[in-house]
Structure of Heparan-alpha-glucosaminide N-acetyltransferase:
Amino acid sequence: MILVDDAGGAYERIDHSPWNGCTLADFVMPFFLFIVGVAIALALKRIPNLSAAIRKIVIRTLKLLFWGLLLQGGYSHAPDDLSYGVDMKHIRWCGILQRIALVYFLVALIEALTAKRQSVTLSSSKFSIFYAYHWQWIGGFIAFLIYIITTYALYIPDWSFVVHNSDSPYDGKRLTVKCGMRGHLGPACNAVGYVDRQVWGVNHLYSQPVWIRHKDCTKDSPRMGPLRDDAPTWCLAPFEPEGLLSSISAILSGTIGVHYGHILIHFQGHRSRLKHWVLMGLALLIVAIILHFTDAIPLNKQLYSFSYVCFTAGAAGIVFSAFYILIDVWGLRTPFLFLEWIGMNAMLVFVMAAQGIFPAFINGWYYETPDKSLVHWIQRHVFIDVWHSERLGTLLYVIFAEIVFWGVVAGIFHRLRIYWKL
């Protein structure tokens, strides 16, 4: 996430896809949800006290929601803008941690409520693992039905919005988007955006969606560039990439992750685990590719389409299997210790690095003007000027001054047994 967020501006091909398609950045959220699902299966494999488990699930969900609102609701303007505070009329209710909170709450709740009904040993049937945890799959299927039915059946009327951008010539003007259709999967008139406008209100959605880099909006697509003269009005409209309906679809990512965790619990041999994981991952990838290239359901992170769920979950399953082979089968743990350290303090790294709180603190100590701070000096003189390239210098800064730095910090905290847990 640090890599794609902070280096995506320099290398647009790793930044989020403007609409259909899947780039490196588009794997981040579903990989989060996949590993959350795996962790849920491991954490809740034994529940001595159901009420205590449910209480912990609820408290953790509320903590995630709190931090999500604080970090992405608009109160923090880190790392470059040193101001703070949010106009409650425009607070953003959704975000990364809020989506994780919703998926975690529902998937963990189903897991907790059905844990005592699972058999310790499975039958010899190839599908016994699915039968044993059928409630989890029923929950995922219900989420799929809600998403699909709403996406294709909901009527989307015309809608309007007021531009809130002081740099835009349209600032303060109300623009109208013409729709009047159903089942549309384009940027302007989809059900995902409509549900969020009705539930949260258009003023509470993300004001800088990635579709501003869409080919209909700028000639420089997929790079950021000036708006085309004939750009449609929706190019300036808000859109919530972590909205309600797309988060319901995201429950499937967590459900598939839980299934991989169940395999880890019940299947004892490396071969049997890997066979199931890899076959399922490949099957999901094939389904996604067919849906995308037949234009039935394109890969789309913003809509969290079903093909996107399958593609990213399949990729997560393959990557998970690869790490399992490297670390658990071949014993190559040492080269990946920094990932383990970061994983043990994921919340610390997310808040301080991915959300820019630590750089904002450093930027708060500047000389004469805010752009003369230690962070800006290091980025400019240690990386960009040395390599004589804005793009390469930015990439190397992100890798060494952010990712490696926080890997070392997380390792030190691990040695000191200091962890930020929710």
